[in-house]
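Handout, page 2. Input:
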Amino acid sequence: MRRIWIALRVFWAALVSGAMARKMEEEILAPRAAAGPEGAGATAPADKAAKPVAKPRPEPRRAVRSEALTLLAALQREARFVDFVKEPLAGYSDAQVAAAARDIHRDCG
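Output:
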């Protein structure tokens, strides 16, 4: 519970005071810069004149959508898939069912 209180105090101090925010940023980034790329773990005092190097932003990932989901979305958009699946097929011949399936499939393309 104490950590939550500390976190709230630090958050508000950084939000209200620009000087406090800069000081916190230096304290957070200094150990990482002092450790170097090897990650030696030594926490040497950081050089106050050195500015932290900004990391390049990663490119946003494009959403990968499978062809099956695209087809399902198209069928549901037309609301024909649900109608086709829920329709009782006992009263229809195989030729009628095949014709309905071809009709639904043709409208998807």
